[in-house]
Amino acid sequence: MTLTVSGIESNSERLLMVADYDPRKDKGKAIAQVGGVKRIDSDLYKVTSQSGNGTYDVRLTRSGWSCSCPDHFYREAKCKHVWAVEFSQTLREKVRENLVIQPVEITSCIFCQSIKLKKFGIRHNKQSDIQRFLCADCGRTFSVNVGFEKMKHDPHAITAAMQLYFSGESLRNSARSLKLLGVQVTHQTVYNWIRKYVQLMEKYLSQVKPQVSDTWRADEMWLKIKGNPKYLYALMDDETRYWIAKEVAGDKLSREAPEYASRLFRQGKEVAGRKPLTLITDGLHAYHLAYKREFYAHQKPVTKHVEHITWRGDKGNQKMEAFNGTVRSREKVMRSLKREDTPILTGYQIFHNYIRPHEGLDGKTPAEACGIEVQGENKWLALIQNASRRKKT
What we know:
Among the domains are: 12-94, no CATH class; 215-340, Nucleotidyltransferase, domain 5 (2-Layer Sandwich). It is globular, with a radius of gyration of 27 Å. The protein has helices at residues 5-20, 23-33, 70-75, 80-95, 155-166, 171-180, 187-205, 257-272, 285-294, 318-334, 343-355, 366-369, 379-392; strands at residues 37-41, 44-48, 55-61, 64-67, 99-101, 117-124, 129-135, 141-143, 215-225, 228-237, 243-249, 278-280, 304-306, 372-374. It is α+β, with helices and mostly antiparallel strands. 42% of the residues lie in helices and 20% in strands.
Protein backbone atom coordinates (compact mmCIF):
# COMPACT_ATOMS: atom_id res chain seq x y z
CA MET A 1 0.00 0.00 0.00
CA THR A 2 1.40 3.38 -1.02
CA LEU A 3 0.57 6.60 0.80
CA THR A 4 0.64 9.78 -1.25
CA VAL A 5 1.89 13.13 0.02
CA SER A 6 -1.64 14.52 0.04
CA GLY A 7 -2.73 11.50 2.06
CA ILE A 8 -0.01 12.13 4.61
CA GLU A 9 -1.04 15.80 4.89
CA SER A 10 -4.71 14.95 5.37
CA ASN A 11 -3.88 12.39 8.05
CA SER A 12 -1.66 14.92 9.80
CA GLU A 13 -4.45 17.46 9.79
CA ARG A 14 -6.82 14.91 11.32
CA LEU A 15 -4.27 14.08 14.02
CA LEU A 16 -3.87 17.76 14.83
CA MET A 17 -7.63 18.21 15.03
CA VAL A 18 -7.89 15.24 17.39
CA ALA A 19 -5.02 16.62 19.49
CA ASP A 20 -6.65 20.07 19.69
CA TYR A 21 -10.08 18.66 20.56
CA ASP A 22 -11.11 19.51 24.11
CA PRO A 23 -14.24 17.77 25.47
CA ARG A 24 -14.57 20.56 28.03
CA LYS A 25 -15.56 22.91 25.20
CA ASP A 26 -18.57 20.80 24.17
CA LYS A 27 -19.61 20.33 27.80
CA GLY A 28 -19.38 24.09 28.39
CA LYS A 29 -21.49 24.78 25.33
CA ALA A 30 -24.13 22.36 26.61
CA ILE A 31 -24.22 24.13 29.99
CA ALA A 32 -24.65 27.54 28.33
CA GLN A 33 -27.43 26.31 26.01
CA VAL A 34 -29.58 25.07 28.90
CA GLY A 35 -29.20 28.36 30.80
CA GLY A 36 -26.71 27.17 33.38
CA VAL A 37 -24.83 30.47 33.45
CA LYS A 38 -26.04 33.25 35.74
CA ARG A 39 -24.39 36.65 35.51
CA ILE A 40 -23.83 38.23 38.94
CA ASP A 41 -21.61 41.12 37.88
CA SER A 42 -19.50 42.10 34.91
CA ASP A 43 -16.61 40.11 36.44
CA LEU A 44 -18.47 37.29 38.21
CA TYR A 45 -20.67 34.44 36.96
CA LYS A 46 -22.36 31.52 38.73
CA VAL A 47 -22.19 28.37 36.58
CA THR A 48 -24.28 25.32 37.38
CA SER A 49 -22.40 22.05 37.65
CA GLN A 50 -23.20 19.66 34.78
CA SER A 51 -24.37 17.13 37.34
CA GLY A 52 -26.72 19.72 38.81
CA ASN A 53 -25.36 19.30 42.33
CA GLY A 54 -24.06 22.83 42.83
CA THR A 55 -22.56 25.94 41.27
CA TYR A 56 -19.05 27.26 40.66
CA ASP A 57 -17.78 30.85 40.65
CA VAL A 58 -16.18 31.99 37.40
CA ARG A 59 -14.38 35.26 37.98
CA LEU A 60 -12.54 37.59 35.61
CA THR A 61 -9.04 38.40 36.91
CA ARG A 62 -6.08 40.24 35.47
CA SER A 63 -4.70 36.99 34.06
CA GLY A 64 -8.06 35.89 32.58
CA TRP A 65 -10.98 33.74 33.72
CA SER A 66 -10.63 31.80 36.95
CA CYS A 67 -12.99 29.06 38.18
CA SER A 68 -13.47 27.59 41.64
CA CYS A 69 -13.91 24.03 40.31
CA PRO A 70 -11.21 21.35 41.04
CA ASP A 71 -10.43 20.90 37.34
CA HIS A 72 -9.31 24.52 37.02
CA PHE A 73 -7.81 24.78 40.50
CA TYR A 74 -5.61 21.66 40.39
CA ARG A 75 -4.99 21.14 36.67
CA GLU A 76 -4.99 24.85 35.77
CA ALA A 77 -7.03 23.90 32.70
CA LYS A 78 -9.65 25.93 30.88
CA CYS A 79 -12.56 24.11 32.43
CA LYS A 80 -16.04 23.58 31.04
CA HIS A 81 -17.42 26.31 33.30
CA VAL A 82 -15.12 28.94 31.76
CA TRP A 83 -16.13 27.68 28.31
CA ALA A 84 -19.79 27.99 29.39
CA VAL A 85 -19.30 31.65 30.35
CA GLU A 86 -17.65 32.46 27.02
CA PHE A 87 -20.42 30.69 25.08
CA SER A 88 -23.05 32.51 27.17
CA GLN A 89 -21.50 35.88 26.32
CA THR A 90 -21.47 34.96 22.62
CA LEU A 91 -25.11 33.85 22.72
CA ARG A 92 -26.13 37.09 24.45
CA GLU A 93 -24.42 39.18 21.77
CA LYS A 94 -26.19 37.22 19.00
CA VAL A 95 -29.57 37.71 20.64
CA ARG A 96 -28.98 41.44 21.02
CA GLU A 97 -30.60 43.11 18.02
CA ASN A 98 -28.93 46.24 16.75
CA LEU A 99 -31.22 49.22 16.20
CA VAL A 100 -29.76 51.99 14.06
CA ILE A 101 -31.18 55.52 14.29
CA GLN A 102 -29.96 57.46 11.27
CA PRO A 103 -30.23 61.17 10.43
CA VAL A 104 -33.24 61.80 8.19
CA GLU A 105 -32.33 62.49 4.58
CA ILE A 106 -34.71 63.78 1.89
CA THR A 107 -34.84 61.02 -0.74
CA SER A 108 -38.26 61.52 -2.38
CA CYS A 109 -40.64 64.29 -3.44
CA ILE A 110 -43.23 65.18 -0.81
CA PHE A 111 -45.85 65.62 -3.57
CA CYS A 112 -45.39 62.71 -6.02
CA GLN A 113 -42.91 60.52 -4.06
CA SER A 114 -40.47 60.58 -6.99
CA ILE A 115 -36.81 59.96 -6.17
CA LYS A 116 -35.61 62.18 -9.01
CA LEU A 117 -34.58 65.14 -6.89
CA LYS A 118 -31.89 67.73 -7.11
CA LYS A 119 -30.90 70.61 -4.90
CA PHE A 120 -32.51 73.89 -5.95
CA GLY A 121 -30.91 76.72 -4.02
CA ILE A 122 -31.25 77.86 -0.42
CA ARG A 123 -34.23 79.45 1.30
CA HIS A 124 -32.96 82.21 3.57
CA ASN A 125 -34.89 82.78 6.80
CA LYS A 126 -34.21 85.50 9.32
CA GLN A 127 -32.10 83.18 11.49
CA SER A 128 -31.27 80.15 9.28
CA ASP A 129 -30.90 78.72 5.78
CA ILE A 130 -32.95 75.77 4.51
CA GLN A 131 -32.15 73.61 1.48
CA ARG A 132 -34.71 73.62 -1.35
CA PHE A 133 -35.30 70.71 -3.74
CA LEU A 134 -36.65 70.42 -7.30
CA CYS A 135 -38.56 67.32 -8.44
CA ALA A 136 -37.71 66.33 -12.05
CA ASP A 137 -41.02 64.49 -12.50
CA CYS A 138 -43.67 66.93 -11.22
CA GLY A 139 -41.51 70.08 -11.53
CA ARG A 140 -42.46 71.37 -8.09
CA THR A 141 -40.05 72.82 -5.56
CA PHE A 142 -40.17 72.32 -1.81
CA SER A 143 -38.12 72.56 1.35
CA VAL A 144 -38.22 70.23 4.34
CA ASN A 145 -36.94 70.97 7.84
CA VAL A 146 -37.80 67.72 9.65
CA GLY A 147 -38.45 68.26 13.35
CA PHE A 148 -37.82 72.01 13.21
CA GLU A 149 -40.79 73.26 11.20
CA LYS A 150 -41.83 76.84 12.03
CA MET A 151 -38.69 77.32 14.12
CA LYS A 152 -36.92 80.63 13.49
CA HIS A 153 -33.50 79.35 14.46
CA ASP A 154 -31.19 76.89 12.79
CA PRO A 155 -31.47 73.24 13.99
CA HIS A 156 -27.75 73.16 14.69
CA ALA A 157 -28.07 76.19 16.99
CA ILE A 158 -30.93 74.51 18.87
CA THR A 159 -29.09 71.23 19.30
CA ALA A 160 -25.89 73.08 20.25
CA ALA A 161 -27.80 74.80 23.06
CA MET A 162 -29.04 71.43 24.34
CA GLN A 163 -25.54 69.99 24.19
CA LEU A 164 -24.12 72.95 26.11
CA TYR A 165 -26.76 72.79 28.80
CA PHE A 166 -26.64 69.06 29.48
CA SER A 167 -22.84 69.11 29.35
CA GLY A 168 -22.85 71.36 32.41
CA GLU A 169 -23.54 74.95 31.35
CA SER A 170 -26.38 76.97 32.83
CA LEU A 171 -29.23 78.30 30.70
CA ARG A 172 -27.72 81.80 30.70
CA ASN A 173 -24.23 80.57 29.83
CA SER A 174 -25.68 78.49 27.01
CA ALA A 175 -27.39 81.59 25.62
CA ARG A 176 -24.14 83.59 25.94
CA SER A 177 -22.22 80.89 24.06
CA LEU A 178 -24.76 80.95 21.24
CA LYS A 179 -24.34 84.72 21.04
CA LEU A 180 -20.70 84.17 20.06
CA LEU A 181 -22.01 82.18 17.08
CA GLY A 182 -24.34 84.98 16.03
CA VAL A 183 -27.49 83.45 17.57
CA GLN A 184 -29.36 85.97 19.70
CA VAL A 185 -31.63 84.18 22.19
CA THR A 186 -32.56 84.48 25.85
CA HIS A 187 -32.12 81.82 28.50
CA GLN A 188 -35.89 81.32 28.50
CA THR A 189 -35.78 80.47 24.79
CA VAL A 190 -33.12 77.84 25.48
CA TYR A 191 -35.36 76.33 28.18
CA ASN A 192 -38.34 76.33 25.79
CA TRP A 193 -36.28 74.42 23.23
CA ILE A 194 -35.28 71.88 25.85
CA ARG A 195 -38.85 71.41 27.06
CA LYS A 196 -40.25 70.98 23.53
CA TYR A 197 -37.71 68.53 22.18
CA VAL A 198 -37.23 66.49 25.36
CA GLN A 199 -40.96 65.73 25.38
CA LEU A 200 -40.79 64.80 21.69
CA MET A 201 -37.77 62.48 22.13
CA GLU A 202 -39.19 60.94 25.31
CA LYS A 203 -42.30 59.68 23.47
CA TYR A 204 -40.18 58.28 20.66
CA LEU A 205 -37.58 56.58 22.85
CA SER A 206 -40.25 55.04 25.11
CA GLN A 207 -40.96 52.66 22.20
CA VAL A 208 -37.31 51.53 22.02
CA LYS A 209 -36.36 48.43 24.01
CA PRO A 210 -32.75 48.48 25.24
CA GLN A 211 -31.04 45.10 25.51
CA VAL A 212 -29.92 45.45 29.11
CA SER A 213 -28.16 42.78 31.17
CA ASP A 214 -29.53 40.61 33.97
CA THR A 215 -28.09 42.75 36.80
CA TRP A 216 -29.62 46.10 37.77
CA ARG A 217 -28.63 48.64 40.40
CA ALA A 218 -30.86 51.08 42.28
CA ASP A 219 -29.93 54.02 44.48
CA GLU A 220 -31.32 57.34 45.64
CA MET A 221 -29.78 60.79 45.83
CA TRP A 222 -30.84 64.03 47.50
CA LEU A 223 -31.74 67.10 45.45
CA LYS A 224 -33.85 70.26 45.70
CA ILE A 225 -37.13 70.99 43.92
CA LYS A 226 -38.57 74.46 44.51
CA GLY A 227 -36.08 74.73 47.37
CA ASN A 228 -37.54 71.67 49.12
CA PRO A 229 -35.47 68.51 49.72
CA LYS A 230 -36.49 65.56 47.51
CA TYR A 231 -34.97 62.26 46.50
CA LEU A 232 -34.28 61.00 43.00
CA TYR A 233 -34.59 57.22 42.76
CA ALA A 234 -32.61 55.85 39.82
CA LEU A 235 -32.41 52.36 38.28
CA MET A 236 -29.32 51.55 36.19
CA ASP A 237 -28.12 48.52 34.24
CA ASP A 238 -24.87 47.17 35.68
CA GLU A 239 -23.21 46.07 32.43
CA THR A 240 -24.12 48.90 30.05
CA ARG A 241 -24.74 51.73 32.57
CA TYR A 242 -28.05 52.41 30.83
CA TRP A 243 -30.29 54.62 32.99
CA ILE A 244 -33.42 52.48 32.91
CA ALA A 245 -35.89 54.40 35.07
CA LYS A 246 -36.23 57.27 37.53
CA GLU A 247 -38.70 58.46 40.15
CA VAL A 248 -38.80 61.66 42.22
CA ALA A 249 -40.01 61.19 45.80
CA GLY A 250 -40.13 62.88 49.17
CA ASP A 251 -38.53 61.57 52.34
CA LYS A 252 -36.95 58.17 51.71
CA LEU A 253 -37.96 57.03 55.21
CA SER A 254 -41.63 57.98 54.89
CA ARG A 255 -44.53 55.55 54.51
CA GLU A 256 -44.80 56.42 50.84
CA ALA A 257 -41.17 55.49 50.09
CA PRO A 258 -41.91 51.81 49.24
CA GLU A 259 -44.55 52.94 46.73
CA TYR A 260 -42.06 55.22 44.97
CA ALA A 261 -39.53 52.39 44.85
CA SER A 262 -42.22 50.07 43.47
CA ARG A 263 -43.01 52.59 40.73
CA LEU A 264 -39.31 52.69 39.88
CA PHE A 265 -39.13 48.90 39.52
CA ARG A 266 -42.40 48.72 37.55
CA GLN A 267 -41.12 51.35 35.16
CA GLY A 268 -37.89 49.36 34.80
CA LYS A 269 -39.80 46.22 33.84
CA GLU A 270 -41.80 48.17 31.26
CA VAL A 271 -38.66 49.69 29.71
CA ALA A 272 -36.67 46.44 29.59
CA GLY A 273 -39.62 44.14 28.93
CA ARG A 274 -38.56 41.76 31.73
CA LYS A 275 -37.21 41.62 35.27
CA PRO A 276 -33.54 41.22 36.27
CA LEU A 277 -31.93 38.13 37.73
CA THR A 278 -30.00 40.23 40.27
CA LEU A 279 -31.00 43.52 41.92
CA ILE A 280 -28.33 45.44 43.85
CA THR A 281 -29.38 48.20 46.30
CA ASP A 282 -28.31 49.63 49.62
CA GLY A 283 -30.00 48.65 52.87
CA LEU A 284 -32.96 51.05 52.51
CA HIS A 285 -36.03 49.12 53.71
CA ALA A 286 -38.19 50.65 50.98
CA TYR A 287 -36.18 48.74 48.37
CA HIS A 288 -36.76 45.46 50.18
CA LEU A 289 -40.52 45.99 50.31
CA ALA A 290 -40.65 47.10 46.68
CA TYR A 291 -38.54 44.08 45.65
CA LYS A 292 -41.04 41.72 47.31
CA ARG A 293 -43.89 43.45 45.49
CA GLU A 294 -42.40 43.66 42.01
CA PHE A 295 -39.64 41.06 41.62
CA TYR A 296 -40.09 38.31 44.18
CA ALA A 297 -41.88 35.23 42.84
CA HIS A 298 -41.86 31.51 43.51
CA GLN A 299 -41.65 30.66 39.82
CA LYS A 300 -38.24 30.65 38.16
CA PRO A 301 -36.19 32.60 37.41
CA VAL A 302 -36.19 34.22 40.83
CA THR A 303 -34.63 37.68 41.15
CA LYS A 304 -31.88 37.75 43.76
CA HIS A 305 -31.79 40.88 45.92
CA VAL A 306 -28.34 42.00 47.11
CA GLU A 307 -29.07 44.68 49.70
CA HIS A 308 -25.99 44.61 51.91
CA ILE A 309 -23.44 46.31 49.70
CA THR A 310 -19.79 46.85 50.59
CA TRP A 311 -17.09 49.14 49.25
CA ARG A 312 -14.96 46.21 48.22
CA GLY A 313 -15.63 43.00 46.34
CA ASP A 314 -18.50 42.03 44.07
CA LYS A 315 -21.24 43.71 46.10
CA GLY A 316 -19.90 47.24 45.80
CA ASN A 317 -22.11 50.02 44.46
CA GLN A 318 -19.35 52.24 43.07
CA LYS A 319 -20.91 52.39 39.60
CA MET A 320 -24.10 53.84 41.04
CA GLU A 321 -22.19 56.30 43.20
CA ALA A 322 -20.24 57.49 40.15
CA PHE A 323 -23.52 57.98 38.33
CA ASN A 324 -24.94 59.97 41.25
CA GLY A 325 -21.86 62.18 41.12
CA THR A 326 -22.52 63.19 37.53
CA VAL A 327 -26.14 64.02 38.35
CA ARG A 328 -25.07 66.05 41.39
CA SER A 329 -22.60 68.07 39.33
CA ARG A 330 -25.41 68.88 36.90
CA GLU A 331 -27.85 69.74 39.69
CA LYS A 332 -25.39 72.20 41.25
CA VAL A 333 -25.50 74.33 38.10
CA MET A 334 -29.31 74.32 38.16
CA ARG A 335 -29.25 75.16 41.89
CA SER A 336 -32.84 73.97 42.22
CA LEU A 337 -35.40 72.32 39.95
CA LYS A 338 -38.70 74.13 39.59
CA ARG A 339 -41.10 71.18 39.56
CA GLU A 340 -41.14 67.39 40.02
CA ASP A 341 -42.16 66.66 36.42
CA THR A 342 -39.40 68.89 35.04
CA PRO A 343 -38.11 67.98 31.55
CA ILE A 344 -34.57 68.63 32.76
CA LEU A 345 -34.19 65.22 34.44
CA THR A 346 -35.64 63.42 31.42
CA GLY A 347 -33.36 65.41 29.14
CA TYR A 348 -30.33 64.48 31.21
CA GLN A 349 -31.44 60.84 31.11
CA ILE A 350 -31.51 61.00 27.28
CA PHE A 351 -28.13 62.76 27.29
CA HIS A 352 -26.65 60.10 29.58
CA ASN A 353 -28.01 57.15 27.57
CA TYR A 354 -27.75 58.30 23.95
CA ILE A 355 -25.35 61.26 23.66
CA ARG A 356 -22.54 61.13 26.21
CA PRO A 357 -19.76 58.55 25.61
CA HIS A 358 -18.46 56.73 28.69
CA GLU A 359 -14.85 55.79 29.37
CA GLY A 360 -15.98 52.65 31.18
CA LEU A 361 -17.68 51.50 27.96
CA ASP A 362 -14.61 52.11 25.75
CA GLY A 363 -16.01 55.37 24.42
CA LYS A 364 -19.48 54.01 23.67
CA THR A 365 -22.75 55.41 24.93
CA PRO A 366 -24.94 53.17 27.14
CA ALA A 367 -27.43 52.95 24.25
CA GLU A 368 -24.70 51.64 21.93
CA ALA A 369 -23.76 49.07 24.56
CA CYS A 370 -27.44 48.04 24.55
CA GLY A 371 -27.50 47.62 20.77
CA ILE A 372 -28.98 51.04 19.91
CA GLU A 373 -26.75 53.09 17.61
CA VAL A 374 -27.47 56.75 16.90
CA GLN A 375 -25.55 57.66 13.77
CA GLY A 376 -24.28 61.06 12.64
CA GLU A 377 -22.04 63.64 14.26
CA ASN A 378 -25.08 65.41 15.73
CA LYS A 379 -26.96 62.75 17.70
CA TRP A 380 -29.46 65.29 19.05
CA LEU A 381 -30.45 66.11 15.45
CA ALA A 382 -30.88 62.44 14.49
CA LEU A 383 -33.06 61.74 17.54
CA ILE A 384 -35.27 64.80 17.01
CA GLN A 385 -35.73 64.10 13.30
CA ASN A 386 -36.71 60.48 13.87
CA ALA A 387 -38.99 61.41 16.77
CA SER A 388 -40.74 64.02 14.64
CA ARG A 389 -41.15 61.63 11.69
CA ARG A 390 -42.55 58.89 13.96
CA LYS A 391 -45.02 61.39 15.44
CA LYS A 392 -46.38 62.27 12.00
CA THR A 393 -46.77 58.63 10.98
